[in-house]
Design brief:
By secondary structure, the protein is mainly α. The chain has a domain of about 110 residues. Helices cover about 60% and strands about 5% of the residues.
């Protein structure tokens, strides 16, 4: 901080956070280990984000009503709770058979969840909890693989057959 008391230091730190090779004295093995561990953090964020979608639709959406009649029920993403909404705004955003103002879901998540077999709000809550658990597990796995005892060696990263088997088993179950 004494050498560079400007915000440039902060922006440079953010810009080079994933530029592992620019950091001092990093070996090829350490580079691979950092990238490998960061993947667990990325998975944790994805699982947490998806868990939030499931939870909010189960809490404020109309998934069960949509499952019963997907052609005539508009999928609700979430309710709008804004104390500054006047009556014209409330009327403009009250749609899809909702009792109050809502945002309609145009993302296709209702259709995707229906396709994979989810049918009730309980299914959505269960999925949200499961993904929250996977998020925590991914964070722990990322931290664990940064510990000296659990760091994979460079030969593990260079073994193409093991890497192929690992990724194909994840892809195909």
């Amino acid at each position: 901080l004494a050498q560079d008391p400007t915000t440039r230091r902060i922006w440079f730190g953010i810009a080079t956070a994933h530029d592992f090779e620019s950091h001092d004295d990093i070996t090829e093995e350490r580079l691979y280990q950092n990238i490998f561990a960061s993947h667990f953090g990325q998975l944790a964020i994805i699982f947490l984000w998806t868990s939030g979608n499931l939870f909010h639709v189960a809490w404020q959406g109309n998934f069960e009503a949509w499952v019963q009649d997907p052609l005539h029920v508009r999928p609700i993403a979430h309710a709008i709770w804004d104390p500054h909404f006047g009556q014209p705004a409330v009327e403009a955003f009250t749609r899809g058979g909702a009792p109050g103002p809502v945002n309609i879901a145009y993302s296709g998540v209702y259709q995707w969840w229906y396709t994979i077999g989810l049918r009730t709000n309980e299914d959505l809550y269960t999925g949200a909890l499961f993904l929250l658990f996977l998020s925590a597990l991914s964070l722990i796995a990322g931290w664990l693989h940064l510990q000296p005892k659990w760091k994979p060696s460079v030969s593990w990263f260079k073994n193409a057959e093991s890497r192929l088997n690992h990724h194909l088993s994840g892809l195909f179950g």
